[in-house]
Design goal:
With 283 residues, the chain is α/β, with parallel strands linked by helices. The chain has 9 helices and 12 strands. A 7-stranded mixed sheet has the order 1-2-3-4-5-6-7. Helix 6 packs antiparallel against helix 9. The chain is globular and about 55 Å long. Bound molecules: zinc ion (ZN).
């Protein structure tokens, strides 16, 4: 009987509720230039990136629903209007990265573009990944993307790389940026952590999840960015790099240029994946 009640509740709410695991998710963070026309406009713990072009802005990730006022304040502090944001992209369809999408779309009128395999989740507001956490306000998708598709605005072109596992449509974005006459390859890495409680073997929600992660690591190993960022600041050392960048004197190297940091990030994440995979396979 008790089981039936619990089950009924689970069905009624449809998802596991996950509280913000980290208070930094709701802490303000001064916007900062990453490189060229790319700015960090998220909270301390949840990334959002603004790419500024002569034809308007591209925003990657909207954080949680609660992140939107923080992002808006940062965008406006940079002297940019919300209505100038024309395109809204995502790393992956979890509540802490697309939770603000519906409100952001309403505020900006931007076109929402998402990888095919995360489209249903985004449009239904239901977490369809192996995690199955809480949902978000549904948002209509204006353009569905396939692996390798490009998104262009005002001379800036982003390429969508499918790096699945964390969600089925997890997308790593790459672009190029220019600063002080130099070109930089930039990667916005999708999350490649394995959420707590998610199994790689005999996963009934996403049977191919282990192969998905393997595909993601193959793709990430093939990228060679000069600058890399990710969907949580801790992954790419946001706090320390931003602090260095704010005190930078002319001619000093940009701390966000960190090709070795990118390789370490990929190798460490892959090791964590392989360790869990072997443990689950009983090897
Ligand atoms: Zn996630």
């Amino acid at each position: 009987m008790k089981c039936a009640i619990v089950l009924a509740l689970a069905v009624a709410f449809g998802a596991v509720q996950i509280a913000p695991s980290d208070p930094s998710w709701r802490q303000p963070f001064d916007p900062i230039r990453i490189v060229g026309n790319i700015y960090y406009v998220g909270t301390r713990g949840l990334s959002s990136f603004l790419l500024v072009t002569p034809a308007g802005g591209v925003l990657i990730d909207s954080g949680e629903a609660e992140s939107v006022p923080f992002i808006r304040a940062n965008v406006e502090r940079l002297g940019f209007r919300m209505s100038e944001i024309k395109i809204l992209l995502a790393g992956h369809a979890h509540f802490d990265h697309v939770g603000g999408h519906a409100e952001m779309k309403r505020l900006t009128g931007a076109g929402v573009m998402v990888m095919d395999a995360d489209r249903q989740a985004l449009e239904s507001g239901v977490d369809r990944s192996a995690l199955g956490a809480q949902g978000w306000s549904p948002v209509k998708v204006d353009r569905v993307l396939k692996d390798g598709d490009t998104v262009s605005l005002g001379g800036t072109t982003l390429t969508a790389h499918l790096t699945p596992g964390h969600t089925q449509g997890c997308t790593t974005w790459t672009t190029e940026a220019t600063q002080d006459g130099r070109r930089y390859r930039v990667a916005f890495a999708c999350s490649v952590t394995i959420n707590q409680g998610v199994h790689l073997v005999s996963n009934t929600r996403v049977p191919a999840i282990a192969e998905h992660y393997a595909q993601a690591f193959r793709v990430l190993h093939g990228l060679t960015p000069d600058v890399f960022v990710a969907e949580h600041g801790g992954v790419f050392g946001l706090d320390a790099k931003a602090e260095t960048a704010r005190d930078l004197e002319k001619g000093q190297p940009n701390p966000f240029v960190d090709p070795q940091g990118y390789r370490r990030f990929v190798e460490k994440a892959e090791q964590t994946y392989l360790t869990q995979l072997r443990a689950e396979q009983g090897k």
